Amino acid sequence: MQLTMHETSGRVTSVSLTCDPAGGTHRHRDTACATLTAVDGDFARITPHRQKCTMIYSPVDVTALGSWRGTQVTYRTTYPNKCAADSQSNGVFAL
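That's the Protease sequence above. Prediction below.
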């Protein structure tokens, strides 16, 4: 799966993530795979983790493209900032 984050500054971060076994270039691939396994690859079902984030609005657009256990996955959303992306995705978008 390819995970990408576009920041308002123009910076783009893109990583790969594979699970079973965990691999790819994601810095926290074990955590990201555990999160996705718990929701069977359904990003909409991810339970956020509690984390204090600033209220600074600096939106990031995130995308996940690939497959989860043979099913195509396309997920796109916008978070108010990078901290919120990490918190709301329970580490999947901690890029």
